Amino acid sequence: MTSLDLWPIGNCQVSALIDRAGRFIWGCVPRVDGDPLFSALLGGDEPQAGYWAIDLEDGVAIEQEYLRNTPILITRHTGAGGSIIEVVDFCPYFRRLGRSYRPVAFARIVRPIAGSPRIRVRLRPTCGWGGECGQRIGGTNHIRYQMDAMTLRLTTTAPVGMVHEERSFRLEAPLHFFLGPDESFTGNVGPSVDAMLADTVAEWQEWVRGLATPVEWQDVVIRSAISLKLCQHEETGAIVAALTTSIPEHAGSQRNWDYRYCWIRDAYYTVQALNRLGALDVLENYLAYLRNIVDGAKGGHIQPLYGVLGEARLEEGFADNLPGYRGMGPVRVGNQAYEQIQHDAYGQIVLSNTQAFIDQRLFRMSGLEDFEALEKVGERAWIFHDEPDAGLWELRTRQSVHTYSAAMCWAACDRLANAAAALDLTDRAAFWQSRADHVRARIEDAAWRAETQRMSATFAGDDLDASVLQLLDLKFLTPDDPRFRKTLEAIEAGLRRGSHMLRYATEDDFGLPETAFNVCTFWLIEALHLTGRTEEGRLLFEEMLTRRTAAGLLSEDIDPATGELWGNYPQTYSLVGMINCAVMLSKPWSAVR
Questions:
Q1: Model confidence over 171-194: pLDDT tens digits?
Q2: 200 burial type by CB count under 10 A (0-12 exposed, 13-18 middle, 19+ buried)
Q3: In contact, 224 and 208? CB cutoff 8 Å
């Protein structure tokens, strides 16, 4: 049965998910939001295509691990007679001729380790969302696969006829496979792919070397950071919410969404977490993407999400050729939430940009023109801070004035005051601080419920929602504020399910939610620590880490009863939660030096 126990590889242009059998079962081209070349993840329980398998004849055991501090996967297959092979999977990624080399390409190296192994290669790509690809042998060492978006070429040192006909053959020397653009491969394939591997290892390990990790849980933080970087489309700076579409939030729920786009909210949390580690390259690339979004809005409405190239229209449709994860359709392509009104985006745009007015390490610091562009965003936050929207959980059939959205609008005004102060714009700093004070007073008056002693998730109701915990991270409330402590108490009582947190416990467009939302549990852990319950927070964090896949990652959701992961994978929110909690809970480096 298909599971989410998957290993991502990638190069910030394309990515793939590899299962515990060492098969590529998900990967889109020419970008993360493209047509899945590998679609078996959504092909039901026994997909006949959409994968790339390299199997050892009479295999009895498989072990997998990442090459240290990289997204390069090593899969070791052991046969019944003692034969062993090793498969190295990666997407080339390194600096070349002063530019980032990140082709639409997947590379595999197969090495004989022991015995006389026989292998079988099955490369069965899909095109047009689960359909057949046009295929033909193009020469003595390559095969072409014709897709709508591009034609791919498999260049290999393996016997092409045996690969094409999926016949078993003896592996007597290392074999190299390069699936990439339909171009002649310059140079000798084997040494060239080996050189790409060495350069890719060096690139990733150098990037990790620059991370300011906490002393505890370094492996957790490093793996989460690498995976977050894989979610950035480096060409534009966009950061997608996950690498997949349509993994349901729980069995048969129909809550199947396409997360291969850039949500302003999710991207803010991603750069916030990576900033804590000093990964400024991701921030700077994303700010370039945001400047284009803000320019395009011309002072008007900003959508909650955009395509990785900044596309505004993301029409939602269905891929009828694919039955879905474990047969649980539908498979959605596109996301209609782009049409929604979500006012929190204004705050997240300003919050993402604030550091650029202060941080002197950046290649490009923000100046007066950037501030003036952000003031247009702040103006929207001011106008709409107490107007209804769909909220961060993107309810499709109703709107409310959400406390979280209003608090993000407050943050937009508050941080604009900080940015103005950094630029010595005294009058503008006073102007935005006055607006921030007004929005704060409005929220405190409209969201606090004296009767139940808690902050409501909406201005009109008395609703429990885990997002209200974010009032602490935004610095709207302090840990010692009695209102926050009472709210935390109420949220724990109403939304905590053992070691996990629900987003909310009321019916939405699809009924009552059945799974917990992983990032909400991390928000709870942060709140526990900041309110003096650190040991409880550490225990809960350690328990959450046991829920990770073998790759060290989490999806969006988890079944509180069984611990099974659901939802799109790997999910940026969940990775952000692991980084933030590790940084917050870890003892300092001075304790071990």
A1: 999 999 999 999 988 889 999 999
A2: buried
A3: no
CA–CA dist 501, 522 (Å, integer): 9
Strand partners, 263: 305
Specify the amino acid at residue 343. H
Dihedral sign (CA 347, 352, 358, 363): negative
Closest-CA residue to 240 (of 547, 14, 554, 39): 14
The H or E element spanning position 530 is: helix 518-530
Based on the number of CB atoms within 10 Å of its own CB, is 441 exposed (0-12), middle (13-18) or buried (19 or more)?
A: exposed
Cα–Cα distance measured from residue 275 to residue 575, given in angstroms and rounded to the nearest whole number:
14
Q: What is the pLDDT of residue 512?
A: 82
Q: Burial code of 483-495, b = ≥16 C-beta within 10 A, e = fewer?
A: bbbbbbebbbebb
Q: In the numeric block, which tokens belong to residue 333?
A: 């392509």
The arithmetic mean of pLDDT across residues 457-474, rounded, is 97
Q: Pick the closest to residue 179 from 103, 126, 120 (CA basis).
A: 103
Phi, psi angle pair for 79, to nearest 5°: -95, 165
pLDDT tens column, 118-161: 999 999 999 999 999 987 777 778 999 999 889 999 999 999 99
User: Is the per-residue pLDDT at 1 higher than 60?
Assistant: no
With vertex at residue 290, the alpha carbon angle to CA 96 and CA 427, rounded to the nearest 5 degrees, is 130
The per-residue pLDDT for 509 is 76
Phi, psi angles (nearest 5°) of residue 232: -95, 130
Asked if 500 contacts 492 with a C-beta cutoff of 8 angstroms, the reply is no
- pLDDT tens per residue across span 75-98: 999 999 999 999 999 999 999 988
Does this model's pTM top 0.70? My answer is yes
**Is residue 290 predicted with pLDDT exceeding 90?**
yes
CA–CA dist 10, 33 (Å, integer): 14
